[in-house]
């Protein structure tokens, strides 16, 4: 019998979305939290991004997971609890579930409730021996694990180099909080994008088909749908560029002219050329990321990269 529970999946609060949007757009340098990309439409667009020729991270990380799955399973041990942060469509985790020795529990954590429940139900049907408990939450703000989860049996999975969306100091704080939540002895498998030729990086975020642009603009469309926004999407343009000094890709939405938009009745003015900063994606060296994780209380036991050194996986253990 399939063990599946949606009891922990609770809808996100619209008032929090509204307050975050208004706060971000009231700043001198306007910004929006990238976590709000992932409504149903945004999640589907991100799934499409992951199939693009220019977007190397997904296929490279997937190949690394296939190549190292048996080694990872040996490190995880029998009967592991697998907690995935930002689970999305729960595609990569299947590589681990296929390799792990009798995994007991899978806890996908994602902010997009409907997408989460649908993906969790599909996975529960395909892995009837694994109890699946989805948690609809912003994992950066914290979430509750099911009762009785033993830290030494727990393995967190944080793929996709999503850690790069945090500024380095924020990444340290996030990893510290995750360690406290999981407990001493918990393990973490994390995907981290590596520094490389800026042309390769910029192509990955400016694909020829315009899927990433649609993904970026969908954030404004979501504000229109859910918060009574009046954004005219054709008056904004997608912009992605690499900042070599900071080691990060920045995504922005640029206003194409002077305009005033209303959000739940609140006016927000944009000057021509002004941008909304929607996402950062930091890139690291392998030693650099290991040092960052150590500051947060995680000891790196293994690091793996592909032959072209585009992407890395790290196996870490939470210190006491």
TrEMBL record:
Gene, per the UniProt record: egtD
Protein name: L-histidine N(Alpha)-methyltransferase
Biological process per Gene Ontology, one example term: methylation
SUPFAM superfamilies: S-adenosyl-L-methionine-dependent methyltransferases
Alphabetized UniProt keyword annotations: Methyltransferase, Transferase
The keyword Transit peptide is assigned to this record: no
Domain Histidine-specific methyltransferase SAM-dependent: from-to ranges: 19-316
Coiled coil residues, start to end: none
Signal peptide region: none
A GO MF term: L-histidine N(alpha)-methyltransferase activity
Keyword Nucleotide-binding: no
Provenance organism: Azospirillum isscasi
Pfam family, one: Methyltransf_33
Entry's EC annotation: 2.1.1.44
Lineage: Bacteria, Pseudomonadati, Pseudomonadota, Alphaproteobacteria, Rhodospirillales
